[in-house]
């Protein structure tokens, strides 16, 4: 949690999402979480998040209410081209203005259609007509432009509900404009990425450091899938060098928990592993059973991963384990597919087959079926192999199938970091 | 969009979540989605979802506002044992009542501690003290009981924010009590899953059908990654058979857009493809370049997928394409990795290597780097091969790397559906 800084003028924001999909639980509202987090980072406090239906009267009432409390109102949803999307016309009627064509928006939507080799349709052309009192916010990823309104020193912004379109508009346009408009005080963030230790154990380990943080620096714990992001927020209270003050605290922390820190800054684990491999000219391949290709997928979401990731064999059936991966039938029969012996062979063989420095393998029971009394659901083996050593590790999870797969992927990637010779380990 | 039915007595609900974690985007609000969906299923319309901070004044204002609009107010969060958790004391002060010990709640919390071999602590004992004007809602999974208030023919229920505790209380107590209290009318939902056609083209194609829907049936478009979910909501206005009335509309729709419908009901594309394969005893393997294992990953998130998915070779480097997948070097040199010829060989070879009925392959430039003037970023080839035919298709995307991968995965899975012989195609 971030506490407001009493010395500065706090800007308050509210988020309004429009559409029955969220109300009826057909869509989970991840947009508000993104917007709340991003606004928090530039020092804007969130007062309230409100989800309302596509109902003009209710939308207008929510806008009125939000304006009594907040300086910034971000609205998402209801900008699609179909009849049930009411946001734009409701905003025009709320402000008592008409719609006018925005040429840039029309050019953008025409370009999107051109790229698909099509003529822009009439209903999509209509999307380029915007309330007269707004500035368009460009949407380079979709057909609905955003709208920026300045009313009584308050900012209201309407954006599409499609997450990647909204995110791009926030990052490219809305956040920078808000910073500029309100002349926001300087806030600095430092993020330290940890893995391999739970939130409460971590909190115990760093309690002394946390208690001794300067008053203008706040700490937040942000756990996600076995990783805990530590975020320091520093408020500029007129000290000489906020950056240096914060870096000194990060340096102290690094000495307390070096083994758990995999990156500084907003770096995902696959990205951190990628950076490590790239830096040392190491290559990797994966042999995946229970993770079903998810490690390869996570590694290849990183642009430039072809420099170190060569490929994977997803060996879901035992036949593929034997025929493509060359796991010995004796090993499979004696120890089973979910065993230290099988997973070690998988890791060793994939690195030889794909001629990589490192081979990484998984074999386990993701569930919900397939468990036995010996090997219940969530029993998982992971292995790392390089030219000198093979390291295998047994994991036990008791979560949903999807989470068992995600956790295994994270732990397997972390095994690379843990198993690399000391000299390579810290990037 | 759903409009309220003027002929029946609609019960309106609001959801209020309390806590800074949601406002600051540290936690995604999945609770409201669950509650919204469950309330919708018993015919309660959600008017608004509101997230506020742990601030007594703001909480009380939200309760006042919600009471002007709704008959049911469900509140989650702020029931922990620590000082930041204000919900219970705020509710008591809101109603102007004191707290009294609830014996059953004390027995429940004592039992939870006993199970862990501990004596109940004083702060947890305090959790059994509830506002005098409420009925306790049992929490068998945690230490904070829920609270059920009946005020002026309106129901207010406070529950913990821990998702599994809240869900259990909803299912066991809150939903049945609400149904009984309001004697609720019937609402029905039908979902039709489509892929391969954008929302606006789809809307044009089915405009006549949509315009002619009976007044008590509403349609919503829910697009996601190249797929559009169509949701019909039917309100029982005393007609003979709502289910039959709605099914008749679904049947009409099936005849208008058969080629785009991949499932009826809430079924994902990987699940629908899985069901299709399982039903016809067909097996599949994938050879993935630009999708990097994501098709295998998506297929294997489905429990039971080992019945039809055998494995994958992720051939990220050309060496792996040649050595593991057996793509001819001549093909690669003549046409390049991103070509109809290469992707067709990949699909044909993987099905032979893994001895499956179907081979599915992808090769393309996911971006943001790697594009050429001939083959810009987003140029992607996908191919399907079975014993009788190979079908290759060129795609063009212009999105982020991650989305290019997700879209390619969806289109490749859809290619299976499109390429299967007619007899297999519709499940």
TrEMBL record, chains A, B:
Residues 14-180 form the MoaB/Mog domain. InterPro entries: CinA (IPR050101), CinA-like_C (IPR036653), CinA_C (IPR008136), CinA_KH (IPR041424), Competence-induced_CinA (IPR008135), MoaB/Mog-like_dom_sf (IPR036425), MoaB/Mog_dom (IPR001453). It comes from the Bacteria. Signal peptide: none annotated. Pfam families: CinA (PF02464), CinA_KH (PF18146), MoCF_biosynth (PF00994). Belongs to the CinA family. NCBIfam families: cinA_nterm, molyb_syn, PncC_domain, PRK00549.1. This is CinA-like protein. It comes from Adhaeribacter arboris. The lineage of its organism: Bacteria, Pseudomonadati, Bacteroidota, Cytophagia, Cytophagales.
